[in-house]
Amino acid sequence: LYKGHTCVGCVLVVSVIEQLAQWHNSTVKAAMERLCDYIPEKLQGFCYMLAELYGPHIAELIDREMNADVVCHSLRLCKQEPGQLLCHLYSPPKVGLSVAIRKAKRITKTSKDLKSFLGF
Amino acid sequence: SSVCAFPLLANLCEKIKYVLRNKLPFEDFDGDKFSTFPTLRGYHWRGRDCNDKNTTVYPGRRPDNWDAKSDSNCNGIWGVDPKDGIPYEEKFCKGADSKGVVLLGDSAGAHFHIPPEWMTITQMSAKSFVNLPMAFSDELDWPQFSEITGFLNSTIGGWTDSLYLRLRKRNRCNHRDLQNISQNGGSSGNILSLIKSIHYLAEALLSALILTAVFCRFSSKTSLHHSIKRGYQAFGVPFWGFLIQGRIGILFFRERDTLAHMTTPKEMLSNVVQALQYLDSHLPNGSHVILTGLVDGRFLWDNLHDRYHPLGQLNKDVTYSQLYTFLDCLQVSPCSGWLTPNETLRNLTSERALQLSNVLKEIARSEKFANFDIFYMDFPLRQTAEEWRKMGGEPWQLIEPVDGFHPNQIAAALGTGIIWQRALHEWPQVLGKANPFNDQIEAIFKDQGGH
């Protein structure tokens, strides 16, 4: 169940970041910094740490027009359980959700720090 | 293996687990289950302690020697009238049929709410997240604004009305006598352990025991320690109570096959009767319990499915139907029987809900208990929607925008009025008498120490 909730949380947060960048016509990195600035001071450190870890990958994937579903699956914060459907909130991308996820995973695969963080 | 494995943190972890499992205040120096700290199950959830260094001083207890010397029950009334030497508590509250409010419930009873401004980009600013630390330390619940135990002015839209505020207005001796022992994910499976959390301590005034027994939730029983505080049956003054059934949060299913895992009428009867029998062996004589039926959750799909979710407002790309499907796919849907495009399943779920309501009606009609009488009322969703329509509102405005599922602040406040009127007209004995000394209490003790 926590996996399900983690996936919901990831899609919510990535959607907000994506829409902040769109609304303010800024980079994804700037959008993340803006979101962390909005958060009360005592929680900003945690926010910046997450932005540091996940930011580059989220930015790279969003810049390639990938939606929150694809980003969160490629970060393995959303998982398709064996025998279960591939869960998504948004309409699937034209190339198909599975294809988009595989492509995104290739992009994030190269990242060492992400791998170590995910292990943690 | 876990951060709690570190010796230094082991104790802290144990305390956190104990508090979380037992729905107890995290900060409670005298261990009397009442706190001077707002969140972490503090006074947002229970009447504020007026002396957190004295375990015999807490809201809702029988006054110590009529509080001639100090305010032992935190209702702000104490001391002796110099004119005649009679303690004020004795003069104004003796025989006044005072009552508190105790709610055992689910996320609806605790008043679950995720602020939509956290995901409405067009209005987002630093102001949007000011309440984030408080919200998380209250488990995303807002009991301080809730329908049964609310006492602060709402900051999440709508207005606050609650049974507690109405009881307090009816009899100022009830000040601060409230306990909201609800949990996100409450169910009839764990309502029994929740009810066992009624921790009976010496001296209790009359109190309203309001139970939101949520059922049809397929979940393992969670063992909850005792956390509600009240008086021993021997010398407790009668409780009266509501057993509010069937909040919207009723159909939690982790299983694919929803219907097969829905609480059956037989389970329902067993769970609720067990809970009531337990209460009967603990509640003071002369208490009352009101059962309410289940909501018809088709209201949610019918009024929301094709509307845009806050996340979908900017690009018009996320409807509630998509949200429900996403949650159901992840098996974290709070209500897969009703939050589904499958109309047949929605209708079957409502059919079962009606069966379960009839179980409650039958319990109220036929079961007899030694220490309380028991009544039944339908869950007032239709009346609430009707009230709101008369006020120019639309039904979808009664539902939490982010989760698309819980009753929101407006629904909570309107629901209070409906339940109150019903009790007032059909079971006035349950609400106690109006206290003729209210004005004098207010003249002498003003806001009685506030909340």
For the structure shown, list the relevant keywords.
heterodimer, A: 120 residues, mainly alpha, 6 helices, 70% helix, B: 451 residues, alpha/beta, 6-stranded parallel sheet, two-stranded parallel sheet, 14 helices, 10% strand, globular
What does this structure look like?
The complex is a heterodimer of chains A (120) and B (451). Chain A has 120 residues and is mainly α. Chain A contains 6 helices and no strands. In chain A, helix 2 packs antiparallel against helix 3 (41-63). Chain B has 451 residues and is an alpha/beta fold. Chain B contains 14 helices and 8 strands. The longest helix of chain B has 24 residues, at 343-366. The two termini of chain B are 43 Å apart. Mean pLDDT of chain B is 84; it is low at 199-226 and 231-256. At the A-B interface, helix 1 of A face helix 9 of B.
Roughly how many Å is the radius of gyration of chain B?
A: 22 Å
What's the quaternary structure here?
heterodimer
Shape label of chain A: globular
Describe the main β-sheet of chain B briefly: 6 strands, parallel
Helix content of chain B: 25-40%
The proportion of strand residues of chain B reads 5-15%
Strands of chain B, count: 8
Q: Determine the N-to-C terminus distance of chain A.
A: 19 Å
Radius of gyration of chain A: 14 Å
Given helix and strand content, the structural type of chain A is mainly alpha
Instruction: Output the number of helix runs of chain B.
Output: 14
Widest sheet: strand ordering of chain B: 2-1-4-6-7-8
Mean pLDDT of chain B: 84
Produce the secondary structure layout:
The complex is a heterodimer of chains A (120) and B (451).
Chain A: H1 2-23, H2 28-38, H3 41-63, H4 68-74, H5 97-109, H6 112-119
Chain B: H1 7-22, H2 88-93, E1 101-105, H3 107-110, H4 132-137, H5 163-170, E2 178-182, H6 188-195, E3 198-201, E4 207-213, E5 228-231, E6 239-245, H7 265-280, E7 287-292, H8 298-304, H9 320-329, H10 343-366, E8 372-377, H11 381-390, H12 409-426, H13 428-431, H14 438-445
Parallel strand pairs in B: 1-2, 1-4, 3-5, 4-6, 6-7, 7-8
